[in-house]
Amino acid sequence: MQGNDKSTLLKTSLGLTLLAGLFFLPFLGGVHLFDWDEINFAEISREMLISKNYLRPLINYEPFWEKPPLFIWMQALAIQIFGVGEYAARFPNAICGVLTLLVIYRIGAKLHHHRMGLLWALSYFGSVLPFLYFKSGIIDPWFNLFIFLGLYCLILFYWKKEQQVIELPWNKWSYLIVGGLLLGMAILTKGPAAYLITGLTLGVYWVYKRFRFYINVPQFVLFTIAAFLITGLWFGIETIKNGPWFITEFTRYQYRLFSTPDAGHGGFPGYHFVVLLLGCFPASIFAIRAFFKLPEAEREVQVDFRRWMKFLFWVVLILFTIVKSKIVHYSSLAYFPLTYLAALSVENIIAGKIPFNRGLKIGLWGIAGLYILIIVALPWLGQRPELLQTFMDKDPFAYANMEAQVRWTGWEFWPGLFLLMALVAFFILLRQKGGQVAFPTLFLCTGCFVFFTLITFIKRVEGYSQRAAIEFYQSKIGEDCYVWTYGYKSYAHLFYTRKQPVQNPKSYEQNWLLQGEVDKTTYVVCKINKVEELEALGTLKEVGRKNGFVFFERKEQ
Known about the structure:
5% strand; 4-stranded mixed β-sheet; two-stranded antiparallel sheet; globular; mainly alpha
């Protein structure tokens, strides 16, 4: 089981590829993209193909300086293959999921042995948010993978330099340069936060080393040059072609993102602690044990890599606790060290070096019980929306959301029942067959649980939140008209009307659309709490309302 022969590595890699493909690739197009992030990136990709402007991301055919273009290029390629739609928008992350499981299996097997690599891959696969993100159309999975691989190559450079006992076929400079190039890919995916996170992690390790330069200044400069060489493929060409304005605005936005709550995404200081504890179940329960003393490792590189992973975890967690914006995926880079530490704890339990204690049992049952309770309650509440509406009298929009005609059979609780049975089976297997069988079974079952929960609930949840508006937008595909949202920010009307390039620049002006002499039929969508403001203008006619959204029309003047 613990052998690292080529046959075992190959068979396991093929098995993980098949597992990831079976779970990450199907049903990507089963539900509309969600506002904002998913639709935002997909719309930028769609407009990139229409405008054929592959250097400068556009949204609503105006410059969008918030993100670099690498992930947009991936989505644009997927749209070329699969056509405009949800499947294409989410396909790049499904591929990232396959690669991620293979990468961490190979790294775990190299540093430890086959079983450790497999446990790491399965703990990632079987944790809620890590699994869920590979079914999404957001940037973070690729961003995180590039950062992690860049840092890993830098660690390998250090080990090669120090002549640590580990097989490293390349020379040290190759690891340094490749690490920099991968970090550059991360910067080109989402921005300079990649460099900041990596630099902070290196800084913490430097402090641990009592300020000894384990990587000297010229080496770090070379690493940085390699990173910005990749990034310069976009930054440099864009600046040469169009001047510095776009890059200046991009830099300013990155500063605002770190210094102020973005788009109302504030939160309490412990936000990301809770997100990682609950969202990375069950790996989070086992990872906690690895922050305390573990039996002595067989090799120094294992001790050192655990140290690096703990430093990376705390850097991500503390950094995004300090950052004003609190969004779930900001701490998603921590999934790599968290699942590694979880696998390390599990490996020690299987090897009989540490006990499967009462605290782990309580943690597993406690968080699993919370998931089960929510999943059992949802279909019951779905059949009784009036119970939820009693708590929503002060929010007319949320109240009206609950009027959506979403079909609940009452049997949608079955993924919760599956999780309960999986946990019972885990404890039986642990007692009868041992951890070598029980833990892989647990992670496989929790991965299945997330998959089943998605296909059971996600369309129903979307039915309350946004479907009424999206169906209205889709009804306008091909119609020569303007569609505008009033009183709230959205990208859905752009993507789901398949908006074409803007011909009249006045159409960007809200006042003109609402009160000016429009040259096309204009539709305005608002939430129910903004209806009176639009009615007071006297220029719009209501043509429908559904589930909290109200639709107005203006005829060509």
